[in-house]
Amino acid sequence: MMKRDDCFRILARHVTDEIVIASYSSAAEWSELNPRALNYFSVGAMGLASSHGLGLALGRPDKRILVLDGDGSLLMNLGSLVSIGAAAPKNLMHFVCNNGTYEANGSHPIPNPNVDFSGMAKAAGYAQCHDFSELASFEQQIGHVLGQAGPVFATLKVERSKPLTYDYPALYAADKRKALKAALAMRGE
Amino acid sequence: MDAGASTVTDQAKVELHGAAVLAAIKASGVEYILSVPDIVTSAGLLRPIARDPALRLVRVCKEDECIGIASGLHYCDKRALILIQYTGFLDSINAIRAVAVEYQQPICMMIGLLGHEPERAPAQSGRYGVRILEPILDAMGIAHDLISQDSDVAKVQPAIDNAYARSLPVALLIGRRPLPPG
What we know:
Largest sheet of chain A: 6 strands, parallel
Shape of chain A: globular
Shape of chain B: globular
Largest sheet of chain B: 6 strands, parallel
Low-confidence stretches of chain B: 1-9
Low-confidence stretches of chain A: none
Oligomer: heterodimer
């Protein structure tokens, strides 16, 4: 079992000009670890991170899109796995942090904490699917995973984190949306 | 008897041609159509769109996916139109509330009014689900236009252009089955 923030610290070392879409607990931790204009937090409705990612992946095939999803969130939008599998964007990398709980809503358990997300993604048509539960393995393989042609899916088996501060107004602030739009409009971005 | 026949004859002349709606969509710069099939727009719009090489159709499983996809595309300066049934709009209200309204994204929706009687205003429909649509849109502050005959098609491009110019959502309500081409 891993800690989500440890995974994100490792992931951050590999992130350069990717667009990173993070939701809820992942957003709270990623925004603290790696604040940057190319972070996308205006997901808004629970479950939609993967759909935002599909839109960005289609609109910017020249850039890699990393979705940092939650298990409770993805369960609310499982159909998106099929839509992404069908659209098959090569530049979409979809990570789900699987801690078995609705962490942002009181850490109540998801209906089945043992659900096989990577298996569902594989069946839905993702090109590459992975499961990670050991940090050393994740650290060793993440570079290779990020280099694969997508859509790529990876389940990160993580513990519940320490209590987080969810400052949604700050995450979703209009200036962040403007900064992202401006960064994407810049030549080379 | 004569008056009734005349009314029927007059109404028979009122049509909505899918080709005209499709031309207006393309004139508005839309590149992507995001859709869950709707029987109102199936033959007149969705099938021609699926055959049109100038448009990219993204078929999704549930209508709220379209809201996220359209927002992502907007960040990339790509225009999208969401083609769904009113039931899917109702099912997607939280996504629309958050992404389209609160985060001010130009989410453009073309919504088929299943079961709507074209001779009536939607607010006067016998269908409860149709009757409540415009009041819901008004309560959410979402601009809307009714497209139920060819003379309404002129509203399509300005509505989409305005949505993108102001970064706000818009709903185009399809009140009559568009006729397929040919």
